[in-house]
Amino acid sequence: MGFWSLFEVASMPILQVLLICILGAFLATEYLNLLPMDARKSLNKIVFMVFTPSLVFASLSKTVTLQDIISWWFMPVNIALTFLFGGILGWVVVKILKPKPHLEGLIIATCSSGNLGNLLLIIVPAICNEDGTPFGERNICSSVGLSYASFSMAIGGFFIWTYTYQLIRTSSMKFKALQATEEVSKVPNNDFNSDGQTRLLKEEDPEQVAISVSSIKSVDDTENEVIVAQESASRLEKRNVSFWNKLIGFLQQIQEELLAPPTLAAILGLVFGAISWLKNLMVGDNAPLRVIQDSIQLLGDGTIPCITLILGGNLTQGLRSSKVKLSIITGVLFVRYVLLPVIGIGVVKASANLGFLPSDPLYHFVLLVQFTLPPAMNIGTMTQLFDVGQEECSVLFLWTYVVAAVALTVWSTVYMWILS
Q: What whole-number distance in Å separates Cα of residue 197 and Cα of residue 213?
């Protein structure tokens, strides 16, 4: 494949995303008002609860087998490394640039969580269908590539709806705490001490003033003793929290995150794909329950356009009022499109030399691209769910997806040159 042919293949999926984003932004304007904030929130909940789980389950149950899961064991490790290195680099960006506390999780998430499903489902088959592709016969390449992309989406979804989900939820808690602090600071100071003494200063009887001031001090001393006692009791209570209570709380938190609909759908999809008799019940022209699979697939097809329309609608608000520093945008772009791809080349080359990877060059290519993708669009879904950093997320997405059109093309060329 020539450079310009590769440029066309790699840029088309990104251009599609940008065009649908523009449509979503237009629908959200006051001129049409078809996608206002309330509508985006409602649609976002449907995407989270219905569309995304359907897409994940339908793709995995149809294309992944037990043998595939065993032979592709390094892909979960590779994806985990993308999150690990991206999270570390995002943490470094946060420490250097010092953004607002409620944006720290968003910045780390955009640095670590790539679009491991939606874009791969479009890019890999498109590359396979091009003339002169280095990945073998067109039909076989497209089928195998779709399986790679589906498996990547499932594993990526697991990390996104656990690790990234926790980051955004923590940011939401920080944001609510900040709002509560600001509200408290706006409340006028009605402290009994100051008001009481002000009123007493106006008294004409000096003896009455002295008695009143003495009583106020006595009340203050009593209150201070109560506060000290309460703080001591609180510290003692914290010390008495047993290890098992902490462990139970931690396990409950993990359970809550694992039961997120997309993660649960990924687990079920892998189970149905790995167990032959379950797969034969739903997948195939002669499957007795194929209508269920077709219905789930139909629902899943709405995931990508809905997420992208929501993203475009959020851009209208973000571009009007967001105050994302240029240094933060530059830091995220540098991590995603310079540092992570270089790290990815080192990881994949080292793993291949150690014999961890199968000989299929398309498999190597998918592993490399996983280090080069723009941020996962599900981050926007999470910011919408928790109502935190939506504007900033929209601006970061705008620039990362615009730059991705060039970055994916350049790095795809480098990857093919390495693999050839």
A: 7
The CA distance from 66 to 81, in Å, is: 23
- Whose tokens are 């993708």? That residue is 373
The 10s digit of each residue's pLDDT in 235-254 is 545 544 555 665 565 566 55
CATH number of the domain that residue 173 is part of:
1.20.1530
Which alpha helices (DSSP H) does 205-275 contain, by range? 206-239, 243-258, 261-274
Taking the model in full, what pTM does it have?
Answer: 0.70
Are 300 and 58 in contact by the 8 Å Cβ rule? The answer is yes
C-beta separation of 141 from 356 below 8 A: no
Residue ranges making up the domain that contains 332: 3-178+266-419
For 308-337, the DSSP string reads: HHHHHHHHHHHHHH----HHHHHHHHHIII
In a domain, 214, yes or no: no
Collapsing DSSP states into helix, strand and coil, what is residue 359? coil
Q: Is 419 exposed, middle or buried (0-12, 13-18, 19+ CB in 10 A)?
A: middle
* Number of domain units in the chain: 1
pLDDT at position 85 is: 94
CA distances 73 to 66, 212, 319, 360, 394, Å, are: 11, 78, 42, 14, 34
The distance of Cα 179 from the centroid of its chain, to the nearest Å, equals 23
Give the 3-state secondary structure of residue 226.
helix
Closest residue by Cα to residue 59 from 146, 119, 122, 162:
146
Question: Torsion over CA of 111, 304, 80 and 373, rounded to 10 degrees?
Answer: -50
